[in-house]
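Take a protein:
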Amino acid sequence: MDKLKNLIVISDLHCGCKLGLCPADGVTLAEGGGRYIPSPMMQKIWDYWREFWDEWVPWVTHRQPFGIVVNGDAVDGRHHGSTHQISQNLSDQDEIAYQVLAPLVDRCKGKFWMVKGTEAHVGPSGEQEELLARRLGAIPDSTGAHARYELWKYLGGTRALLHIMHHVGTTGSSAYESTAVYKELVESYVEAGRWGNRPPDCIVRSHRHRHFETKISSAGGRAISVVTPAWQCRTPFTFKVPGGRIAQPMIGGICIRTGKEGHENVYAQEKIWHLTRPPVE
C-alpha cells in the first residue's frame, strides 16, 4: 500500500441536505416517508459526480491504482435549527451517504479512508461518520476507529508524507484566502522542527468549500498546502457569510500524486466545476 502513487480526496458531500450530494434517481425514506427525488440542480451535481469518477479520475491517475479519502462532512446532520435537510432522520442521511460512497470502495479496492468533519454536521466526536465508516469498511487507525480526526500517510515510491484533516481557517476576504492555508504549512514545519520530526510534504484541508493551493520550495522538491472543493451548493447560511455570500460554489475534488524522486516529489491536481450565478432579470 505504501507504493500507492495516487490519492483522490473529496470532502463536504453533505448527504441528506437538499443542496448536497444525492443519487439522481432519488432515495426511499424511512418510516414510510416515500421517495425523495432531487431537484434538477442537484441532478446536475450528480452528473458532475459521475463525470468525476468515470472520466476525470481515470485520466488524472493514468488508470493506475488509487486510494480515496473522504475528508469530513459526509452527511449534513441536524444543525443550527436548519430546515434544508431532505430528512431530519439521521438514518436516512446515513443511507444516502452509503449509496453514494459504497461503489467507490470497490473502485479503489478497499484503499479507503474517512476523516471526521464538523461536529455540527456529523455529531459529537464524529459519531455519525464513525458509524458510516464502519459500514463502508474504511481502513481503521491504530486505535481501531474507522473514522479519524487526521490521517498521516506515505504516498508512492518517493514516500511523500501527507497530513490530511478536515478543518482550516476561513476568511471573509478573497484577498486573504491564502493566509490560513499557508499558515497550516508553516505551523506544521515549526511543530515538526520543535520535536525533531519530519515535516509533511503535503497538507490537505477542507471545510471552507473552496479550492485553494499554495506551495513552497523544499529539500524534497516542494511542499504544498491544498484545500479541497465541496459537493454542496450554497445553503441559507452562506448568504450571511462575508465573501461566501457572493461567491459561487466550487464543486469537485483533487488528486494527490507523487512524481519522480529528486524532482516533483508530490503535487496536486484539481477538478473544479464552477456553478454560474443566477440569471439577470
Q: What stands out?
A: Residues 13 and 231 are 5 Å apart (CA to CA).
